[in-house]
Every structure is written in C-alpha cells, then in structure tokens.
Write a structure and sequence with these properties.
Order of helices and strands: HHHHHHH
Radius of gyration: 14 Å
Number of helices: 7
Number of strands: 0
Helix content: over 70%
Amino acid sequence: MIKEDYLVRMIREIITLIASSLLERRRVRPSQWIEYDTLTSQLLGVSTPQLAALDADDIIDRFPDTDTDRMGKMELAAMTLLKVSDEMTDEHLIDKHRIRQNGIRLLRHVDDNDHTFSLQRVALLRMLADKP
C-alpha cells in the first residue's frame, strides 16, 4: 500500500512538471530531463527512445487492466511523448508529428477512461487541439 501510494505520487509529480512545461512553453533543462527520463523509464519499464518508437495502442496494451497504476502510467507516457515531440526540431518533422499524435491519442484515451478528473489534462488537450 505504501509503495503504491509512493508510485502514484511520483507519477503525479512528474506529470505535473511536464504538463506545466508544456502549458507554459518552457524548455526542460537537460539535467532535469535526465532525471525525468530515469524515473519514467523505471516507472514504465521502457526507455524514452523505446517509448517514442511505440504506437499509442502498443502503449495501452503494455499496461494490463490489473495494474492499479495503469491510467497514471499511460498519462505519464502520454506526457513524455508530448514533451519529447515539443523538444524535437523541425529537422525530424515526420517523427515529431507521429510522436505528438501518439501522445495526444494516449492522453485522450486516459481522459476518456480514467475515473478521476484532471483540470490540467483538460487544459493541455484543449491547447493541443488549438495548436496545428
């Protein structure tokens, strides 16, 4: 129980930090990104480059219904994809767009299926819908 509460808090904290940087259009410092990446890899069981190579459906399938942190992990994966896409240059426009679309699809899936409401998630989805 304590371990689960700790994991949920860690996931929520990382999601909040990434969402804030996306909403405020702030770049993440490399040292901060290394910390996020390490924690994300531990929590999701996959590195950021591996995550970026996956389709949204593959990410959803990675987390079974029996995983109590399923939605939090999917939201963390979505935020990570969105931040990776945001940090990419236009030299990799096709990959940037694909990763962004997977992040949006995953975040919408979480928003539609999670039993908790998140104002930050709604704001981010609204911002992403307005952005080309």
